[in-house]
Structure formats: C-alpha cells, structure tokens
Amino acid sequence: MASNPSSSSPDNNASSRNSTTDAAPAELSAVVDELLNSLSNKFAGVSSEIFAKMDEMSRRLDNLEAALQSSEGREGNDSPK
Fold first, then answer.
1. Per residue, what are the HEC states of the chain?
2. Integer Cα distance of 6 and 46 in angstroms
3. HSE-CB of 57 using CA atoms within 13 angstroms
4. Positive or negative, the Cα torsion across 21, 24, 26, 28?
5. Is the dihedral of CA 53, 55, 56, 62 positive or negative?
6. What whole-number distance in Å separates Cα of residue 74 and Cα of residue 72?
7. What does pLDDT average to in each consecutive run of 10 residues of the chain (81 residues)?
C-alpha cells in the first residue's frame, strides 16, 4: 500500500499556516506604529496650541497688571494729602 503525496499533506498545510501567522504580527505592528505616530502628531499639535494659549494669557495678564499699577499710581498722585 503506497501512499500518494498530495498538495494537501499536513506538512504543506502547516507551512501555509505559519506564513499566515508570521504576517499577522508584522501587519499588527505596522498598524500600531501608524496609530502611535498619528497620536503623537495630534498630541504635539494640541500641546503647541496649549502653549500658545498660555503664552497669550500670560501676555494679557502682564498687560492687565501694568494697567492696574499705572491706574493705582495715578490715583495715588491725585489723592489729597
């Protein structure tokens, strides 16, 4: 009783499964890398917007403080002694 080797032998099926399972982690890794890059870019954009708004708030507070000090200085000079 001789056996005929066929293309659907267990060895051939195992090798095709291995190539499929080897590609899956690489594809997953590529998708995760792309997601991380996208999130990193979005975070950098939001971070720069926050810093710009904080700088603007700081500038406005400095102007307000200067205006209050000059107003207090004028009131001090105008008050009778």
1. CCCCCCCCCHHHHHHHHHHHHHHHHHHHHHHHHHHHHHHHHHHHHHHHHHHHHHHHHHHHHHHHHHHHHHHHHHHHHHCCC
2. 60
3. 6
4. negative
5. positive
6. 5
7. 52 60 87 98 98 99 96 76 54
